[in-house]
Design brief:
Blueprint lengths: L2 E4 L3 E4 L40 H5 L13 E10 L4 E9 L7 E8 L17 H5 L12 H8 L15 E5 L5 E4 L11 E5 L3 E5 L4 E7 L4 E8 L26 E18 L6 E16 L5 E8 L21 H15 L4 E10 L2 E9 L4 E4 L5 E3 L6 E6 L4 E7 L3 E9 L5 E7 L2 E21 L8 E8 L1 E2 L2 E2 L1 E7 L10
Antiparallel strand pairs: 1-2, 1-7, 3-4, 3-13, 4-5, 5-6, 7-8, 8-9, 9-10, 10-11, 11-12, 12-13, 14-15, 14-27, 15-16, 16-17, 16-18, 19-20, 20-21, 21-23, 22-23, 23-24, 23-27, 25-26
Length: 494
């Protein structure tokens, strides 16, 4: 049975994803304290909508799927482009919010090199290019085909893309709709579509994730397709950074799940008015995650980075100047072969902060050919000043984070640096709604990692790996975020 969740607290069942393009019939409007935020329910039999049963609360297996019983839910994707730029997209909602209950963020941060992300592409893509090896069964308005068709109207002979300029949009739509379906196989990933009318949608299947953003009044079009996901744990496809703590997720104020530590991303972006519009097409790699729970904490740190790579003009997926050349499997195998010859793919991510009064907790993941390391409570936790396995120092005014986290046999030392003038503000989900400027994020961070092991508790630490992540040539392109009380503005007089 298919489930539709209106991001205001109504749940609706009986609509198939294929029929979602049909307009829903408005029934009774539910009054709110905010005049700009309205809730609607379709004319469906309310008896078909079950309550939050213990099974739904305790036994949900795919935690990337929506959790209809929780106060807020947010999906975040960061795509690092081939030149080190970043394309970021967020869909988030807070139920029963007093104001700004729904949030969609779309931004592009250039690499700072002066070279746009279209440098090695010789022609604009066609709909066949962007969708040739993808099978999207979830339909929503606007469609991915309409985005690609619109972007490909420029004639091939006159196509001369200009470097894409930076942009950031924070939308607070009146409504966000979510349509979910049962997984194709028992214990598999759930397919669902998130739609913000008038802005765009996020369509998720077991094998791919598609974003389609069309905002004519802002002259903005974004089409992003992710596939070839790298799971947090290949041995447990539904696992995430919380590990066994996930069994207590219904009790925790905030939860974090990473769907993929590195997906292949195919993107097409058009921004600006017709004669001066910038168009960018290409591929990159994406980090895909979500949060859900009661609210974001009073203060937190988040960071993410991919392997460092060589500078300039790279062709990370073997396109050789042709967008979509070869099958997706062939391009993926070529990229994997190159990684095997040069260096192993490395990824790092961390999320954590003030979990409860007097308690700080963190979730940390570091992946390389040698290390598949996770750190979580009870090790990555500080009870007041008592923290034998964790040490964190952060200074947002300097754009710095220093972390040391360990267990009995593994230790990870991390230093993250980003220039203070590279941070931009974002909204964050609080209990009353999304608070603008409550989070501050930079996509110009560099991450230094040192991994050490020892044979027994109390033994001597031996460094097994030391590397820099979040860098393309000389360009820093990792991500670092300070939220809430962990962010302090830089005093211009200093």
């Amino acid at each position: 049975m298919d489930l539709v969740i209106g991001a205001g607290a109504e749940c609706r069942e009986g609509l198939s994803p294929q029929s979602y393009t049909n307009p829903l019939v408005c029934a009774t409007s539910i009054p709110t304290t905010c005049r700009s935020f309205a809730f609607y329910t379709p004319t469906l039999n309310r008896t078909t909508c079950p309550a939050d049963t213990p099974y739904n609360m305790f036994f949900q297996r795919d935690h990337f799927a929506p959790h209809k019983s929780r106060k807020f839910e947010g999906y975040y994707t960061r795509t690092q482009l081939e030149d080190g730029g970043t394309l970021a997209v967020i869909f988030c909602w807070v139920k029963h919010a007093k104001e700004r209950g729904n949030y969609v963020h779309v931004s592009y941060t250039p690499s700072g090199t002066g070279v746009g992300p279209t440098q090695y592409l010789q022609r604009p893509p066609t709909p066949a290019d962007t969708l040739s090896s993808r099978n999207h069964t979830l339909n929503a308005v606007p469609s991915a085909e309409s985005v690609s068709a619109s972007l490909s109207r420029t004639s091939r002979s006159s196509f001369s893309p200009a470097p894409l300029a930076a942009f950031k949009y924070d939308f607070f739509p009146d409504k966000i709709d979510v349509v979910t379906s049962k997984p194709a196989q028992r214990g598999g990933h759930v397919s669902f579509t998130i739609t913000a009318p008038g802005i765009g949608h996020m369509a998720v299947t077991a094998d791919s994730i598609e974003y389609s953003i069309i905002v004519p009044e802002e002259h903005l079009r974004v089409h992003l397709v992710l596939d070839a996901h790298t799971l947090w744990s290949p041995a447990s496809p539904l696992a995430g950074p919380m590990g066994g703590i996930m069994r207590l997720s219904w009790l925790l104020p905030l939860n974090w799940h990473v769907r993929s530590t590195g997906s292949r991303a195919t993107y097409a972006v058009e921004h600006g008015r017709a004669l001066i519009a910038s168009k960018a097409y290409g591929e990159g790699r994406a980090h895909v995650e979500k949060n859900w729970g009661g609210s974001f904490p009073r203060g937190w740190i988040w960071a993410q980075a991919f392997s460092a790579s060589e500078a300039g003009g790279g062709d990370p997926w073997g396109l050789n100047g042709e967008f979509g050349k070869g099958s997706s499997q062939q391009r993926w195998r070529r990229s994997q072969d190159e990684d095997t010859e040069d260096h192993s793919e490395r990824t790092f991510c961390i999320a954590g902060g003030k979990a409860f009064p007097g308690v700080q907790a963190y979730l940390v993941g570091y992946r390389s050919q040698e290390c598949q390391w996770d750190f979580r409570p009870p090790y990555a936790v500080a009870l007041g000043r008592f923290s034998p396995f964790l040490r964190v120092r952060h200074d947002s005014r300097q754009g710095e984070v220093e972390l040391r986290v360990s267990n009995w046999r593994r230790k990870l030392d991390v230093v993250i640096e980003a220039s203070p003038d590279t941070f931009m503000d974002m909204a964050a989900p609080l209990r009353g709604g999304h608070e603008p400027g409550f989070a501050h994020e930079s996509f110009r961070a560099k991450v230094h990692v040192r991994a050490s092991t020892r044979r027994w508790p109390g033994g001597k630490w031996t460094v097994v790996e030391e590397c820099v992540l979040g860098q393309v040539g000389a360009v820093q392109c990792g991500a670092l975020e300070f939220g809430g009380s962990f962010y302090r503005k830089v005093d211009a007089s200093e």
